[in-house]
Write a structure and sequence with these properties.
Blueprint: H1 2-14, E1 16-18, E2 21-24, H2 28-37, E3 48-52, E4 61-67, E5 76-80, E6 82-86, E7 91-95, E8 99-105, H3 106-117, E9 124-128, E10 131-136, E11 142-146, E12 150-153, E13 156-158, E14 170-183, E15 192-197, E16 207-215, E17 218-227, H4 233-247, E18 253-267, E19 279-280, H5 296-312, H6 323-337, H7 339-352, H8 355-362, H9 368-376, H10 380-387
Parallel strand pairs: 1-12, 2-3, 2-13, 3-9, 6-15, 13-19
Antiparallel strand pairs: 4-8, 5-8, 6-7, 10-11, 11-12, 14-17, 14-18, 15-16, 16-17
Helix pairs in contact: 2-5, 6-7, 6-10
The structure holds flavin-adenine dinucleotide.
Flavin-adenine dinucleotide binds near residues 64 and 130.
C-alpha cells in the first residue's frame, strides 16, 4: 500500500508539466529576460517556469556604461561621469560623455527580482531544481528534464553553460579579488572611477587595479588579472597591499566587505541555439565580451530583442558583425602569449584614443572607419603576427 503510494507520488512528481516558457538558470540574464518580457501586455497570460539549482545569488557588483537613463535605473547605486586609466608611464582622466558608468549591486538586483518583481507576477514560478538535460520531443516541443521534475514547452531559454566552453581554442579567466574599504581620511574623488591602473602590475603579467570610489573615504579596490591560471590568495593580497601602500600613500583603512570572482573570457563560435533547439542566453550565448569580460549591458539588450521576437514570433537572428570576434581573438592571443605586450597596447589605446570612443568600440558599436582610426594608432606588428599563427 505504502509502496504503491510512493510510486504514485514519484510518478506525479516526474509528470511533465506543460508551460508557455521555460527559463533554465535563474541568474542575471534570466532575470533580465523576465524584465523585458514583462513589458508586453500579453506577458501576464503566459505561464513561465524558471529552474535554478542554487537560488543563492553570488555577491557581485555589475558595472556597465550607458547613455541617458537606464531601464534598471532604480537599481543603480552609483554612477560616474569620468574615467581614469593609469600605467607605469602616464595617467589620463577623461569625461565620458555621452556615457555614464554605473554599478548595480548583486544583492539589490536579486532582492528586487526575487522579493518584488517575481512575487508581483503570479504567472512566474521559480523552481529550485537542477536541469539534467534538454530534449526535443517534437518539432515544436522541448522537454527539460530536471532532478525532481520535468517540464515541456515550445519556448525554452537556457543560461546554462555547456562543457564546450572551457574547451574553447582560446580561453582565459578574468579573475579578481577586491576590498570594499573605508579610509580615515578623504582620499578618493567620488566622480572618477579607475577602469584600469597598471602602475603596480607584475612583470610578465596582465594585472591591473580597478577602483570604484563611492564617496571621498569609501571605495571598492579590486586587483584583476587575465590569465589561464587563477592566482593563489596571497598573490591578490600582495598586489592589493602594494597598491594601497604605493598609490594611496599607505592610507589607514578598514575592510568592510570583499568581492572575489572569475569570468570566462573564451573565444569560440558561440551558437545562439543549444543542442535541443533551446535559445541560449547570457554567458552561454557568448554575451560576455571575450576581451573585456563585460556582459551585463549586452545581456540586457539581448533580453530586449528576445522579448520583442517572442511576441512578434520572429525567428532569432545573430546579427553581430563577425569582425569584433576577430579583434577579440587577436587581443586574447596577445594577452596569452605576451602579457607585457598587451599591457603596452592598452597603454597606447588609452593614450591616443578618447575614452568614450574606446567604450563605443568595446560595445561593438563603432563603424569600420572608426575601427580603422583606432587600429592606426596601435602598433601593427603584434596584431599582424597573430593573424598568421
Ligand atoms: C564576480 C563577477 C562579477 C562580474 N561583474 C561584471 C560587471 O561588472 N560587468 C559586466 O558587464 N559583467 C560582469 N560579469 C560578467 C557577467 O555579467 C556575469 O557573469 C553574469 O552573471 C552572467 O549572467 P548569466 O545569466 O549568463 O550567468 P549567471 O548569472 O551565472 O546565471 C546562470 C545561472 O544558472 C544556474 N545553473 C547552472 N547550471 C544549472 C543547472 N544545471 N540547473 C539549474 N540551474 C543552473 C546557476 O546557478 C546560475 O544562477 C561578472 C561576473 C562575475 C562572475
Amino acid at each position: 500500500m505504502y509502496k504503491a503510494c510512493f510510486f504514485l507520488l514519484l510518478e506525479c512528481m516526474l509528470e511533465t508539466e506543460n508551460v508557455d516558457i521555460i527559463i533554465c538558470g535563474g541568474g542575471c540574464s534570466s532575470m533580465l529576460l523576465l524584465f523585458h518580457l514583462q513589458q508586453y501586455p500579453a506577458f501576464n497570460s503566459l505561464k513561465i517556469v524558471v529552474i535554478e539549482k542554487e537560488l543563492k545569488p553570488q555577491p557581485k557588483t555589475w558595472c556597465f556604461w550607458h547613455k541617458g537613463n537606464h531601464p534598471l535605473q532604480h537599481l543603480i547605486t552609483s554612477s560616474w561621469n569620468n574615467i581614469q586609466f593609469g600605467s607605469k608611464q602616464f595617467i589620463t582622466t577623461q569625461a565620458i560623455n555621452p556615457y555614464t558608468y554605473s554599478s548595480i549591486k548583486g544583492e539589490d538586483f536579486f532582492d528586487y527580482f526575487l522579493d518584488q518583481f517575481i512575487p508581483q507576477h503570479s504567472n512566474i514560478t521559480i523552481i529550485k531544481d537542477e536541469v539534467i538535460q534538454i530534449e526535443k520531443t517534437s518539432p515544436q516541443l522541448s522537454k527539460v528534464i530536471c532532478k525532481n521534475g520535468n517540464y515541456s514547452s515550445n519556448t525554452v531559454y537556457s543560461s546554462i553553460i555547456g562543457k564546450e566552453f572551457q574547451a574553447a581554442p582560446i580561453f582565459l579567466w578574468q579573475h579578481f579579488k577586491g576590498w570594499h574599504i573605508k579610509t580615515e581620511d578623504s582620499i578618493f574623488d567620488e566622480h572618477i572611477m579607475t577602469i584600469m591602473d597598471f602602475s603596480c602590475s607584475l612583470p610578465n603579467s596582465f594585472d591591473f587595479v580597478y577602483i570604484l570610489p563611492y564617496s571621498k573615504n569609501e571605495a571598492l579596490i579590486e586587483i584583476t588579472a587575465f590569465s589561464t591560471q587563477i592566482w593563489e590568495e596571497t598573490d591578490y593580497l600582495n598586489q592589493l597591499n602594494a597598491f594601497i601602500s604605493n598609490k594611496l600613500d599607505g592610507a589607514a583603512y578598514q575592510i568592510c566587505a570583499t568581492e572575489q570572482g572569475k569570468i570566462p573570457m573564451a573565444y569560440f563560435n558561440h551558437s545562439t541555439l543549444g543542442k535541443a533547439g533551446e535559445t541560449l542566453i547570457g554567458t552561454a550565448s557568448g554575451k560576455i565580451k571575450a576581451s573585456s569580460g563585460y556582459g551585463f549591458e549586452k545581456m540586457r539588450i539581448e533580453a530586449a530583442i528576445l522579448a520583442s521576437n517572442y511576441f512578434s514570433k520572429k525567428p532569432l537572428k545573430n546579427n553581430a558583425p563577425k569582425r569584433f570576434k576577430f579583434y577579440d581573438k587577436l587581443l586574447l592571443k596577445i594577452i596569452l602569449e605576451n602579457p607585457e605586450e598587451a599591457v603596452g597596447i592598452f597603454g597606447k589605446l588609452f593614450k591616443k584614443i578618447p575614452i568614450p570612443q574606446i567604450l563605443k568600440f568595446l560595445y561593438e558599436e563603432t563603424s569600420l572607419y572608426e575601427e580603422a582610426l583606432i587600429f592606426k594608432k596601435l602598433p601593427a606588428i603584434p596584431f599582424i603576427k597573430r593573424i598568421f599563427n
